Amino acid sequence: MNVTAIENFVCVIYNISFMNCTWHVDRNASGDAQYFLYWKTSRNEDFVRCQNYITDNYGRHTGCRFQNVTIKENRKAYFLVNESRNGQNILPYRETIYLYEIEKLTPPLNVTVNCTEVSHSCEIQWQRPRTSHVDRDICFKYEIIIEKKADPEERIKNTSKTERIITGNSYIFDSFNANKRYSVKIRATNNDCLVSENWGEWSTPVEFGREQLTSISSYTLLLISAIAASLILFFCIITIYLKTVPAIVLQPKDLFHDISPVNFQTENQFIKHETEEIITIIEEAA
Q1: What's the pTM?
Q2: Which residues form the Fibronectin type-III domain (predicted)?
């Protein structure tokens, strides 16, 4: 019985959840042959047929595109390619793959560079690449390339590179020259976890050096000067105010002094008349 005439079957997962599977048609394959891909992620599942084929100039299927692919740790995927050729019985091509092994890692995220002119060093920081199945920083190691760029203004054409393989999410570049211009890019791979051994995609180069440092330093110095001047002015105003404004001593009120003597007399007369009237009433009753 004939076997499906394909070769170089390869699958790649990229951008976290997209997968492409491709193959080459054998040169001895029949011209009227057509190929159909099926796959599943568990032995107990049914095979699912490809819905988005890649075709060659002869209209033959030479690959398939998948979306919403989820990688599960230590989970195998099963692929099957059938060949249709004039109703003949042909054995399918079969392949079993661990999905995490075929993932193309995304670039490390949020690459930043902070340089200090005094110490002639820069701290480069980043975050791990995005994946659908790994969320631990320890699972990745990185290749970092720092390139000193040519300077047309100074007629410097020579460039140099610093390459390092490191773990962790930061790196100290201690050969920094404030008068030079640099760029840095980073990519990731596996570090003793269920992650692809292949190097991932490079991050977009981040430039740093002379122009960036100059602008940052000028702004920082201006800001510090403005804050210092404001504080000095504030303390001067407070000092002058405390020296010129006399202390105000509050005098307590004499409550007895404020009471009018007329009030006492009026009140006494009222009490006296009321007493005399009561006495008169008592005498008549007797």
Answers
A1: 0.66
A2: 107-213
